[in-house]
Model the fold of this input.
Amino acid sequence: MPSFHCRQCGSCCRQPGYVYITENDAKLLAAGLRLDLYDFTDRFCEVLEKRHLVLKQYPDEKCIFLEGTRCAVYETRPAQCRDFPLRWDSKRRSEYCKGKVVP
Ligand code: SF4
Ligand code: SF4
Done:
């Protein structure tokens, strides 16, 4: 199975688009931050189209959890973040990501 050599530049966390949060993601993130689920979603999430929970962003679309080039919740980051780019990818990735897939 291939692996991915990430340069930990944080560019993917600054790209336009949303980080969708599953119920399991929300539970893990809330526990990692020692918050109850309500406080976690109130502080760090918003609801998109009345039904999708996503992470809040800064006005420039940077993820709310990006600190410099690091993810502040790396150990409990959402599945969408864990799965990038081996389980899902985008055509645009080569424009901002210098990481390499290692066969
Ligand atoms: S949760 Fe962490 S890994 Fe995911 S987009 Fe935000 S800063 Fe990046
Ligand atoms: S843009 Fe690519 S190399 Fe940079 S942190 Fe994201 S996955 Fe890693």
The chain has a mean pLDDT of 96. DSSP finds four helices and six strands in the chain. Residues 23-32 form the longest helix (10 residues). The two ends are 7 Å apart (CA to CA).
